[in-house]
Specification:
Number of domains: 1
Oligomer: single chain
Structural class: mainly alpha
CATH class: Mainly Alpha
Radius of gyration: 16 Å
Strand content: under 5%
Distance between the termini: 50 Å
Number of helices: 6
CATH superfamily: Tetracycline Repressor, domain 2
CATH topology: Tetracycline Repressor, domain 2
Helix content: over 70%
CATH architecture: Orthogonal Bundle
Shape: globular
Length: 152
């Protein structure tokens, strides 16, 4: 197997593991906000536990060859779809409303990537909660209703 083949196989396996972990968190009981916090925490934990995955993704991105990045692109797309479903559920339940989820979700994911790659370690215990709180604050929320309705 070529070096590219080994990298691709590792990235494909990591992509499957990541999505399985996110789906597991979304399948647990709790409010949409609680499950969003769990997804954020699981995302950070996944990359902290497997720091080589970030490097694999970055290496694939640097080659600018879509075939090298395909497994992670599929996982990224699936993550966006899962989060869109969660935000739709939150809106329907009256928990919170994000004005433009198609812009906000990639921003959340990009922010998570920056925190994973460059954030302080060890991680603060309340990091996932702080990220979700920042994500749910204005101006990303639909006026006139604030994102949060009372305590979580």
């Amino acid at each position: 197997m070529t070096r590219f083949g080994r990298y691709a196989a590792l990235l494909e396996r990591a992509s499957r593991q990541f999505i399985a972990r996110i789906e597991d968190e979304l399948g647990r009981p709790g409010s949409p906000r609680q499950r969003l916090r769990a997804v954020v925490a699981a995302s950070i934990a996944f990359f902290d536990e497997q720091p080589h995955v970030s490097d694999l993704i970055q290496r694939a991105e640097a080659h600018r060859d879509p075939s090298r990045l395909r497994p992670w692109q599929q996982a990224r797309q699936q993550m966006q779809e899962l989060l869109l479903e969660l935000l739709a559920e939150a809106k329907a339940a009256g928990d919170f409303t994000i004005r433009d989820p198609e812009v906000s979700i990639p921003m959340l994911m990009g922010g998570l990537r920056s925190i994973v790659r460059f954030g302080r370690q060890p991680r603060a215990r309340d990091l996932a909660e702080r990220i979700v709180n920042a994500f749910l604050q204005e101006p990303s929320c639909q006026p006139p209703t604030p994102c949060l309705k009372g305590p979580p």
